[in-house]
Specification:
Elements (H helix, E strand, L loop, with lengths): L5 E7 L8 E7 L2 E7 L12 H4 L1 H5 L9 E3 L8 E3 L2 H19 L4 E5 L6 H11 L4 E2 L7 H10 L5 E2 L7 E5 L3 H4 L6 H9 L3 E5 L5 H5 L2 E3 L6 H14 L5 H7 E2 L1 H8 L4 H8 L3 H13 L3 E5 L9 H14 L9 E2 L9 H5 L6 H4 L9 H5 L5 H10 L7 E5 L3 H4 L3 H10 L2 E6 L11 E4 L8 E3 L7 E5 L11 H14 L7 H9 L6 H4 L5 E2 L7 H4 L8 E2 L3 H6 L26 E5 L15 H6 L4 E4 L1 H6 L7 E6 L2 E9 L7 E4 L43 E7 L5
Helix pairs in contact: 3-21, 4-21, 5-14, 9-12, 9-13, 9-14, 12-13, 18-20
Length: 704
């Protein structure tokens, strides 16, 4: 008998946001196990359930492993297998027809959250001439990048390597989510070593339960709370006077704005007792070094940009910016940047001016993305011009975007839809062409290339599944068919060589390395200032002043809240917050993986026992959650860790086991009842208000 070859290959997981080192066990060419890499500096061998279960996704029997074209009407589920050449030729021909008749701006390219192929997507879009790139960034991460870009010149990241003595976790459950630049293991380590913990969250999470101070605020009032903290820090002279004097612009104006948020007012707004706000502000300001770990919860309301700005301001005025153990600006390896590879300067100015919503959401235009609503409107109304084609990679907007019925209607009506994914999701089922995407275990790539944590983690191709292609190759080969051949490469590895060229390395030299890391330097501002127009941290934003926005952060009451809509109180008496992360799913992914679905089989809505008793709801009952937009059904979990006036629902739910078209996309999908009215958008970024709405609940009968 021949011996079966066994090997262990080092790589880097992308089961969620990425960044965790893994050891992949392979036997006879098949993956048998995935475990954490103890030598990886970001996770030290720890792994979350998503990464541990990922081989179940790779080999899932329902995975689509070859290109398809739709043969019947949308929603009928009739498909024909085709070749890659036919798929790409069909797409290229359709795009050329659209460009000739309507212009390149009538094509929208899009992706899901942090997919590691941003640079390739933008290269294709910019060379094609479309300014319309649709991502999750308007309400997730890129909004943070944009806000910090105009405030301090870049994204400041918690420096866990240098052992912060206090961590303020704001709207983020990092031990479950392992978000961009972070893994929960690093936070757990510094806490075990004695760091103080402040948690701001409407729910009693694991982190809130072990916090030194937990501020249980009314959902959506984070900006008011942060302004109240700034009030304490300034009034009690807890700010870093030397830093403020040398490195801050607009101090006097900022002080006047902060005076508008005394603690009695902030307590009324946030429901957080003034004494607890004062205690948290003192602990953060007086414990050095300290850092703020923030999450997307604060970015999915009308206060998105100002929330990010005021948290950056807190870092600055306490002297915790650009220092070891504070919020640092990590230095990447000296590679070509995402912006450089993406060829943003190749998009003609006249095309940039055509960006949907660009003249309204100027910060979104600055970071080169559009908010979804303007795309759906352009499809459905033809205004300001028609959108005729949408190409989506790793995105399931029918489940993950606000006002899901409108999303479904738009993607059902667009002339031509292309989707690249692993499975026929509710969004993919509406496509004209489906492209089978490769997972991180089926590609070579420079992991974390787009992140700001200072690391690059080589990912190695370990297996080939069917005819699946990595998205980088899809963009490259499609670009060649669209007249861009001179700007692309023979192979994706050649593209990596181009990205790596400034380092003096090639992919062949890098692929077996555990990681690349930039040479870190702290207090860079002392030599060259901050990358803003004034070279200082702009508490008073000169960029916003020029754009016509308020130069200072302010709190805006959520449009659909008990304060703004008392007329809705009798019919919709509860505040709905949606979107809390789960340890087994990644947004709308993984619900077809048996290992993970067994852990979490049903969508859950969290309700306080007093509230449940009022409606005759018991723990485990199915209940309807209703808003003015409709209703969905989730299973009740009773908990005292939530305010009786608040209902917390899960997002991302569809049911792959449902065999009819749509997979029950509208049964428990919380975005059926969320709102995408532009009146509730963050003014500079166009962030959708997903986190704070009004709702009611009632038991679901069995026949429902």
């Amino acid at each position: 008998m021949e011996a079966v070859q066994e090997q262990i290959i080092r790589s880097n997981c992308r089961g969620c946001h990425g960044g965790c080192g893994v050891l992949v066990h392979v036997r006879g060419g098949r993956i048998t196990n995935i475990e954490g890499d103890p030598e990886c500096p970001t996770n030290h061998g720890t792994m979350c359930s998503r990464g541990l279960a990922f081989k179940e996704l790779v080999y899932h029997p329902d995975r689509v492993t070859y290109p398809l074209k739709r043969t019947g009407k949308k929603r009928e589920g009739k498909w024909q297998r085709i070749s890659w050449d036919e798929a790409l030729d069909t797409i290229a021909t359709k795009y050329e027809e659209i460009i000739a008749k309507y212009g390149a701006e009538s094509i929208v390219l899009g992706q899901g959250t942090g997919r590691d192929y941003e640079a390739f997507l933008y290269r294709l879009a910019n060379l094609l001439g479309t300014p319309n790139v649709l991502t999750a960034g308007h309400m997730c991460y890129v909004s943070r990048v944009g806000a910090t870009l105009i405030t301090c010149g870049g994204l400041p990241v918690c420096d866990y390597d240098k052992d912060p003595k206090c961590v303020m976790v704001w709207g983020c459950n990092v031990v479950w989510t392992n978000p961009d630049e972070y893994t929960g293991e690093n936070l757990s380590r510094v806490l075990s070593e004695g760091a103080k913990l402040i948690v701001i969250d409407p729910k009693l999470t694991y982190l809130a339960g072990r916090a030194d101070i937990w501020l249980q605020l009314r959902p959506g009032t984070d900006t008011a709370l942060a302004l109240g903290m700034a009030n304490v820090i300034i009034n009690e002279d807890l700010y870093d006077k030397e830093f403020v004097e040398k490195h801050v612009h607009g101090w006097d104006e900022f002080v006047e704005r902060v005076k508008e948020y005394p603690l009695d007012k902030v307590e009324d707004i946030t429901w957080v007792p003034a004494d607890k706000i004062r205690e948290a502000a003192r602990l953060y300001a007086q414990t050095r070094p300290a850092c703020i770990q923030w999450g997307v919860a604060i970015e999915q309301t009308i206060n998105c940009t100002d929330n990010n700005r005021i948290l950056t301001d807190l870092m600055a005025i306490t002297g915790n910016l650009d220092i070891p153990g504070g919020n640092a600006f990590f230095v990447p390896p000296p590679m070509r940047t995402v912006s450089q590879f993406g060829m943003h300067r190749e998009l003609p100015p006249e095309q940039r001016e055509k960006q949907l919503g660009g003249n309204t959401y100027k910060l979104a235009q600055r970071v080169a993305l559009v908010t979804p609503k303007v795309v759906w409107d352009a499809i459905l109304t033809g205004e300001p011009y028609p959108v005729k084609a949408v190409q989506l990679h790793g995105s399931n907007p029918v489940i993950t975007r606000a006002n899901a019925r409108e999303v479904y209607r738009a993607l059902s009506q667009v002339d031509f839809l292309v989707v690249a994914d692993f499975f026929l999701t509710p969004t993919a089922e509406l496509a004209d062409i489906f492209l089978p995407a490769a997972t991180w275990l089926e590609m070579n790539y420079l992991g974390q290339y787009w992140c700001r944590g200072g690391y690059i983690f080589p990912r190695r191709k370990i297996v080939q599944i069917g005819e699946c292609w990595q998205d980088h190759k899809i963009f490259m080969e499609l670009g060649k068919r669209l007249g861009q051949k001179e700007y692309w490469f023979d192979t994706v590895e050649d593209a990596f060589d181009y990205i790596l060229e400034p380092t003096g390395l090639t992919w062949e030299k890098v692929e077996d390395m555990p990681y690349l890391r930039g040479e870190m330097e702290y207090r860079k501002h002392e030599k060259k200032g901050f990358s803003t127009p004034t070279r200082k941290v702009e508490l008073y934003s000169t960029t916003f002043e020029n754009w016509g926005y308020d130069p200072l952060p302010q709190y805006r009451e959520i449009p659909e809240s008990p304060v703004n809509r008392p007329d809705m109180a009798s019919e919709y008496p509860y505040i709905l917050t949606a979107g809390a992360r789960l340890p087994v799913f990644f947004h709308s992914e993984n619900r077809m993986i048996p290992w993970l679905r067994e852990i979490h089989p049903d969508p859950i809505v969290e309700i306080h026992p007093e509230t449940a008793e009022r409606h005759g709801i018991r723990d485990g009952d199915w209940v309807f959650i209703q808003s003015p937009r409709g209703r969905v059904k989730q299973r009740a979990r009773l908990t005292t860790g939530i305010n009786p006036r608040v209902i917390a629902a899960q997002h991302g739910w569809w049911f792959p086991e449902v065999t009819t078209p749509g997979h029950g996309w509208d049964r428990s999908n919380i975005n059926i009842i969320t709102d995408n009215d532009p009146a509730g958008y963050d003014p500079p970024m166009g962030s959708t208000n997903l986190r704070v709405l009004l709702c009611n609940i009632y038991p679901a009968e069995e026949e429902d």
